[in-house]
Design a protein that fits this description.
Layout (H helix, E strand, L loop, with lengths): L36 H8 L2 H11 L12 H7 L3 H9 L14 H7 L3 H9 L14 H5 L6 H8 L14 H7 L3 H9 L5 H9 L20
Helix pairs in contact: 1-2, 1-3, 3-4, 3-5, 4-6, 5-6, 9-10
Keywords: ANK repeat
Pfam family, one: Ank
InterPro entries: Ankyrin_repeat_domain, Ankyrin_rpt, Ankyrin_rpt-contain_sf
C-alpha cells in the first residue's frame, strides 16, 4: 500500500504552485481596500445589504480590485442565501477570476458543498479549467468525502480531465493518499492506465510510481 502512494511532490504541483501566492490556501486572501461595499456584504453573508447594493448600483457581476465577483466571494465563504440571491438576479454563473477560477471551483476548493450544489443545479459548467488546467473535480479530490465529487460527475464532470502537469483527478487522489477518493473514482470508471501514461511521460524521474497491478487492492470487497 505504501508503494501505491509513493508519487513525487510534482504530481500535485499544479494545485499547489508557488505562482499562486496571492490565493494561497482555499479562501481568498482579502484586504479591505480591495473591496466595494457589496463585496464586504457578500463576505459577511449579509443578503439584505447585498440586495440593497444591487438596487442602487445594479451590477450583479461587480468585481473587486482583484477581479473577484460577488458570487466568487459568497461561494468561497459558504453563504447560500447570498448565492441564491445573486442567481435570482441572473448573475454570470461561470464568470472567472484572475486565475480563471469559476465560483463553482471556489465553492469546491473551500469545501462549501451547499453552494456548489446550488451552482450545479443552476447549470454551472464543471469542466472549465483554471490557469493550471484544473477543473472542479481536481479540487474535489481534496475534500473530506466523495459526495461533492459524485455530484460533479452526475453533472457530467470529465473524470479524465488533465491539468497542465498531465494529472487526472485519480492521479491527484493517489498522490495525496485519499484512499476513499481513489476507490470512488475507480468505481466510476476512472482510467487506471492514466498511471502508466504518467509513468511513461515521466520516466526520467527518480520517484517511484504506482504499479497498475496494485490498484485493485484499493477496491472494497
Amino acid at each position: 500500500m505504501r508503494k501505491l502512494f509513493s508519487f513525487g511532490r510534482r504530481l500535485g504541483q499544479a494545485l499547489l504552485s508557488s505562482r499562486d501566492k496571492e490565493y494561497a490556501g482555499p479562501v481568498y486572501h482579502i484586504r479591505d481596500w480591495e473591496l466595494r461595499k457589496i463585496h464586504r456584504a457578500a463576505i459577511k453573508g449579509d443578503a439584505v445589504e447585498v440586495e440593497r447594493c444591487l438596487r442602487r448600483f445594479r451590477d450583479v457581476d461587480a468585481r473587486d480590485r482583484k477581479d473577484r465577483t460577488v458570487l466568487h466571494l459568497a461561494c468561497a465563504h459558504g453563504h447560500v442565501e447570498v448565492v441564491t440571491l445573486l442567481l435570482s438576479r441572473i448573475c454570470q454563473i461561470d464568470i472567472c477570476d484572475r486565475l480563471n477560477r469559476t465560483p463553482l471551483m471556489k465553492a469546491v476548493q473551500c469545501q462549501e458543498e451547499a453552494c456548489a450544489i446550488i451552482l450545479l443545479e443552476h447549470g454551472a459548467n464543471p469542466n472549465i479549467k483554471d490557469i493550471y488546467g484544473n477543473t472542479a473535480l481536481h479540487y474535489a479530490v481534496y475534500n473530506k468525502g466523495t459526495s461533492l465529487a459524485e455530484k460533479l460527475l452526475s453533472h457530467h464532470a470529465n473524470i479524465e480531465a488533465l491539468n497542465e502537469e498531465g494529472n487526472t483527478p485519480l492521479l491527484l487522489a493517489i498522490n495525496s493518499t485519499r484512499q476513499q477518493m481513489v476507490e470512488f473514482l475507480l468505481k466510476n470508471q476512472a482510467n487506471i492506465h492514466a498511471v502508466d501514461n504518467f509513468r511513461r511521460y515521466n520516466s526520467h524521474s527518480s520517484h517511484s510510481v504506482v504499479s497498475i497491478d496494485s490498484l485493485p487492492v484499493l477496491l472494497p470487497l
